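This protein record is not my work; I was only asked to verify it. Where you disagree with what is written, explain briefly why. This is what I was given:
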Amino acid sequence: MTKKNRFKFAPERKEVEKQLDVVWAKSVKKLAGDKCEVCEKTERLNSHHLFSRVHKSTRWLVENGVCLCYGHHRWLAHGKDSEKFRDWVINKRGQDEFDRLKIKAYGRATHFSVAELLVLLDYSRNELKSIGDIW
């Protein structure tokens, strides 16, 4: 593959990943009832990854997300006391679920082709539609 072709291909991947991020964030908020999972505020909501976005194997799993208001996102999830946040997640989701996600996130590296990302995007959009029907 020449440099020219490689760079021509990259924006398509980035665009699909961006769309997946948007669908993921909306799904996390919908599953939380469009409110902060800590204080139940409904304004300035953020979808936060429990395990970093750099881990492609869990990046777009809604169970790897939590809906937080701006304050809790900034101070609890990205604050100095990461242990407190981890404990809160384990209390809310359970140790088994936390460990399952951790193993998946830190396990073998996952690389999706653009075609696989497009399938995942289609699936995620359909899931978001069905979540919308629940609420």
Residues 31-125 form one domain. The helical segments are 3-31, 56-59, 70-77, 82-93, 95-106, 114-134. The chain is about 65% helix and 5% strand. The first strand starts at residue 45 and ends at 49.
